[in-house]
Structures are given as structure tokens and as C-alpha cells.
Amino acid sequence: MDHPLTRTKVVGYWFNEKKCQKFGVAELKATCKRRGIELVKIDMSSPMEDQGPFDLLLHKLTALYAQARNDDPKAVAAIKMFENYIKDHPETSVMDPLPGVLRLLLRNQTYDLLRQCFKQDGK
């Protein structure tokens, strides 16, 4: 077993396929590996406990949150699992903390509602 100070860092990530292509995940994985970092795609249909432990979580959950708000049961379960993992593992760093993601999602919904209101007024 690795010495705790030399253990490979594990970064868990979840992006939809479009974001994976945009971010060039294959190249990112190779770069991380060269630097002693393992980049692991999180399977949102399997327990995160079985996939970790993670040192860092990268995510783009906005679309998943939107699906969950529309009562998509798979999205609801995935978000709950992700949130519970973060709560149960405070030692894991999270890029884009979830409260900020939710605030952004709500802000975008507010802007959409305002745009709809202005369209109805003929503006």
C-alpha cells in the first residue's frame, strides 16, 4: 500500500458528454496521470462510496439539477447521492460548491421568467 503522503490523488468528475468533449477529458486524463493524479469519471448510477475516496470533485451539475427540478427520478437520485457524498466527506474539496451552482441555476430561471414577462408585454 502507498505511503499516505505519496498516495495518488484521485479527482472524481462528472460532466455530461457534451462537456466531456468540450473539456477534452482524454487529454486532461493523460496530463493528470503524468502528474500523479488519477481522473475518475463518476458513474451517477452507482454509489460514490464504492468509486472513491476522492480528493477533489469536479462537476457540471447544472443540467442535472434542472432535470431533478423537473422530477426526473434518476437525476433526483444522482443529485442526492452527490450531495450526501459531499456531506459525509468534508475532507473532499469541491470545485464549484453546490450552493453557488444552485444560486446560478435560480438566477438563470429568474432571467428566463423576466424574458417571458417582457415578451408577453410586447417588448
UniProtKB/TrEMBL annotation:
Residue ranges annotated for the Inositol-tetrakisphosphate 1-kinase N-terminal domain, each copy included: 10-99
An annotated Gene Ontology molecular function: magnesium ion binding
Family annotation (Pfam families): Ins134_P3_kin_N (PF17927)
InterPro entries in the record: Inositol_tetrakis-P_1-kinase, ITPK1_N
GO terms for cellular component: cytoplasm
An annotated GO BP: inositol trisphosphate metabolic process
PANTHER family: INOSITOL-TETRAKISPHOSPHATE 1-KINASE
Protein name per Swiss-Prot or TrEMBL: Inositol-tetrakisphosphate 1-kinase-like 2
Organism annotation: Homarus americanus (American lobster)
